[in-house]
Amino acid sequence: MKGTILHTPKNISFAKRIVKCLPQAIAKRLPAEISVVSVSTAESRALNRRYRKKNTATNVLSFRYSKEYGEILVCPAVIRAEAKAQGHSFEYQMTWMIVHGMLHLSGVHHEQSALAEKKFSRVEQEILEQFRNGPPRHHHRR
């Protein structure tokens, strides 16, 4: 998204590549600035208990504080365990969770219904596919 600033602990270009794969309608609704922050299992559990009333550590939480700023909190320990259980690489699973958080920050949610969950999952998979394959290439005739 034009104008979105991403702060990540290590690889900003990685997160910017994810944003480039988002559908324009979603990308334009992201906060102007996003931080991706790693949290421990204990921190994840405490935050999940406080904000979602679930007493377990979770893979990703997202918080939109304003039009200008949002955070995506990822728990690498949970994400690593899920990746192993699902037969994915850690990198793929982490990318998926950041995409998931970005969708929530843009106002897209899956909790309302089975249909919303299905649509959300489809959009996630389309974004991950584009991320894996790179941006579409345009061919020009000479």
UniProtKB/TrEMBL annotation:
Enzyme class, first EC level, given as a word: hydrolase
Cofactor remark: Binds 1 zinc ion.
Keyword Nucleus belongs to the record: no
Superkingdom: Bacteria
Cofactors that this protein relies on: Zn(2+)
Binding site for Zn(2+): H100, H104, H110
Stored InterPro entries: MetalPrtase_cat_dom_sf_prd (IPR023091), YbeY (IPR002036)
UniProt keyword annotations, A-Z: Cytoplasm, Endonuclease, Hydrolase, Metal-binding, Nuclease, Ribosome biogenesis, rRNA processing, Zinc
GO MF term list: metalloendopeptidase activity; RNA endonuclease activity; zinc ion binding
GO cellular component labels: cytoplasm
Cellular localization per UniProt: Cytoplasm
GO biological process: rRNA processing
Repressor among keywords: no
EC number of this enzyme: 3.1.-.-
Functional description taken from the UniProt entry: Single strand-specific metallo-endoribonuclease involved in late-stage 70S ribosome quality control and in maturation of the 3' terminus of the 16S rRNA.
HAMAP family for the chain: Endoribonucl_YbeY (MF_00009)
Family: Belongs to the endoribonuclease YbeY family.
NCBIfam families: rRNA maturation RNase YbeY (TIGR00043)
Name of this protein: Endoribonuclease YbeY
Organism name: Candidatus Sungbacteria bacterium RIFCSPLOWO2_01_FULL_54_21
Upper taxonomic lineage: Bacteria, Candidatus Sungiibacteriota
